[in-house]
Amino acid sequence: MSQGPSLALELPPTHSLPGRAAALAAAFIAWRRGSPGRGPALRALSRARRQDIDGVGHKYHLEFVLEDIFEKDSTVNCTAEVLYHLGNKNAAPDVQFTIEGELKNTDEADNLFYNRIKSLKNELVAENIPDSYGNVPPEMEPIRALAWAASGYVIWKNSNENTKYQLAQIKHVKQVKRSDEYLEFDYMILLHENVSQEIIPWQMTVLWHPQHGIEVTQYSRQPKHV
Fold first, then answer.
1. Cis omega (within 30 of 0) for bond into 130
2. What pTM does this model have?
3. Could you give the count of Cα atoms lying within 13 Å of 216 in the half-sphere of its Cβ?
């Protein structure tokens, strides 16, 4: 019986399996590198190989282009490896990535957003972002980008080789008052699962600070009637 990894098999970029792996890698990158001023998103998959590792799982070697949800013309090339584990359905896939070049600097935009929210007399509350026509008010773009990044964490933790999630809408978001330097938001989001075509509600609690990044402190899948 053979041991260890097999040779990587080239797959067409249009194939559904590497497409799911690339979407997962992009969501993971959005969580790790996203902010209220930056929303990395998958533009195109250019090359994909799949490797079967005996007793371990399936590894995808990917080359793709990321764009930004704010600026579609702002692109970077990326490589990533996604390993889906065999057997353990509760194990999140392993994702490693390299970005070739630099993502746009968002320090100024992030600090403006942080100071604006900190100066509000009442906690921010909003719903239906985008609305049924696909519109996002300009002042809600950072709230959407923060949800885009945080949902990347939820997507990563709940993905397998047979899923392809993407944030569809923020149903509701409420700022939670805190006594420390962090901003906290309680989100109810809808994730679109492309394979089953399900729209799944998730609740997530998100902390953010310009110097410390995004942390999802709690999340849970909700009943579909929410």
1. yes
2. 0.94
3. 25
